[in-house]
Design goal:
By secondary structure, the chain is an alpha+beta fold. It has one domain. The protein has helices spanning about 15-25, 40-50; strands at about 35-40, 60, 65, 70-75, 80-85.
Length: about 90
């Protein structure tokens, strides 16, 4: 009998997943304005609809979406990532 491939753990919702990364970057001295949250269309939709995110953590002012002060860019990626953290060595 062949071994079964490991079952992948489901990813946390994008709000939870990137909150810790953004907070870690802030603690590391990176300003939110220096970061970019590059999301897939699916993750952006999930972030927009996540009712567990406090209203003050997400904004849609001036034609830009921001999460915890970090500008959100949607699309043109195959996986979501926080750009600007960790810093390049």
């Amino acid at each position: 009998m062949a071994a079964r491939p490991p079952v992948a753990k489901p990813l946390l919702p994008p709000g939870e997943r990137f909150r810790s990364a953004i907070e870690e970057a802030k603690e590391g001295g990176i300003a939110p304005s220096a970061m970019l949250l590059q999301l897939t269309h699916t993750d952006a939709a999930k972030l927009r609809r996540d009712q567990s995110i406090p209203v003050h953590d997400i904004s849609f002012a001036d034609g830009a979406m921001r999460y915890l002060g970090v500008t959100v860019a949607v699309g043109a990626v195959s996986s979501s990532a926080l750009v600007g953290w960790p810093p390049a060595e």
